[in-house]
Amino acid sequence: MKTAVLNIGEEQTLNPYTELTALKAHNDIVRFLVQVDDNRFASACDDGTIIVWDVQTGEVVFELQGHTQKITAILVFPSNETHSERADLILTASSDRTVIAWDCESGQEVHKASDFLSTVKNLTVLQGLDVWLSGGGELRVWSRHFKVLGETGCFSDGGIAALVELPKNCVAAAVGKDLRIFKLGADAAGSDRWDISEVKCLSAHQDIIRTLANVNELTFVSGSHAGELIVWDALDWSVQAFETNLSRATSPQDVPPENKLIPLQEEISIQCIASDGECVFVAVCRSIYVYNLQTKRVIAYQKNAHDSDIQHMATLPNRQLVSCSEDGSVRIWELRSKPQFQAESVPAGFFSMWGFGKSGKQSNHAVKRAVDTGIVASLELIGDLIGHSSSVQMFLYFQDHGLVTCSADQLIILWKEGKRESRLRSLMLFQKLEQNLQAKFSLQ
């Protein structure tokens, strides 16, 4: 039985994004977006093309053509402070087993690497070392000029699924069920080769790791296909918290005994993770859970945040969160504290902390458990952006220009703050009238 998705209705008084502009230049699924600078972003498509846009005007700045198959990763490699001239690059990886560097200012192809054993699925920049990493069937370290500085052997289990930077020149790579920690460093004085040493293999997950995310300099998190959420210490790689999704999103008392079946993995799989440094926002299929790192508990949740699986999430200022889904929706949420007397008990089976919520607990402990694991906040829907007709792949947030979304419908949509845009138009009109008056008086 399908559960109704939360509906905000037509009145969205707290949603600032009331103006939209649809951009059409791609001819296939637009899968990735990346911010180039304060005024530009790049979109990457399954037809292998990359387009750089002006976020304010919606105009095409460059169209980058060099790949023959779909784009699998994209990021910006900023210039290092030690460089005498700015030379920001856009790095793109493709299913054609190439990685290309594009000049951000001219749009020209600068470098190209094509000797990969398999598709590169991850790109990561280590800004402090002025190098970038490619992750796929193997892990490689590259200089800005596309010279291979070091590499590992080949991985099994589908290669590297996710990659994050850690302190002390380390990176964590998700390979199958394992997290592998690598340390980077120069081989010897005068050598241009780097050593990539695997210093630790973390095997805490019981299923394939789908996503990794940095929380802060001391913490990172991982999520698996089986719904496991693990909080890690970024310095010594120890487990700080382990949460397991053991059942469906309804409490056992609400489900008839004959329907208490083991949930399918696709119903508990962690899709993506976002963090504001204090909380971890976890997308489990179409639901969102807010996990507080200090209390190590779920403090808020929305079981029916979307009608289909969530594709991407990111936090905004003022305790807000944006999520987008396969159902074509983009939703804005606000995390609000609840009065203490309104605290609710967590649905049994959701992110139970090791021993919490076990069936062997006595009934006289029910009140204590409700206090210990109470929901102390709510995730309120404050905006529903309807414009795409197919799965929304991801989005970007610009502080001065609003949101940008991309979709399988081949469209990119710019979502603008209506009040701000109205003020800008009024200002431009007054400026134009003032210029006309000055020109008129100068002729007299």
Task: Outline the structure in words.
It is a single chain. With 444 residues, the chain is mainly beta. It is built from 3 helices and 35 strands. It is globular, with a radius of gyration of 24 Å. The N and C termini lie far apart (78 Å).
Total DSSP E strands: 35
- Strand line-up of the largest beta sheet: 18-19-20-21-30
List unreliable stretches of 5+ residues: 246-262, 352-371
Oligomer: single chain
Topology at a glance:
Layout: E1 17-24, E2 30-35, E3 40-45, E4 50-54, E5 60-64, E6 71-77, E7 89-94, E8 99-103, E9 109-113, E10 122-126, E11 131-135, E12 139-143, E13 148-151, E14 160-166, E15 170-175, E16 178-186, E17 194-202, E18 209-216, E19 219-224, E20 228-233, E21 239-244, H1 265-268, E22 270-275, E23 279-284, E24 287-292, E25 297-302, E26 310-316, E27 320-325, E28 329-337, E29 344-345, E30 352-353, H2 366-372, E31 374-375, E32 377-386, E33 392-398, E34 402-407, E35 411-417, H3 418-443
List keywords for this structure.
444 residues; mainly beta; Methylamine Dehydrogenase, Chain H; four-stranded antiparallel sheet; 3 helices; 8% helix; WD40/YVTN_repeat-like_dom_sf; WD40_repeat_CS; WD repeat; WD40_PAC1; WD repeat domain 41
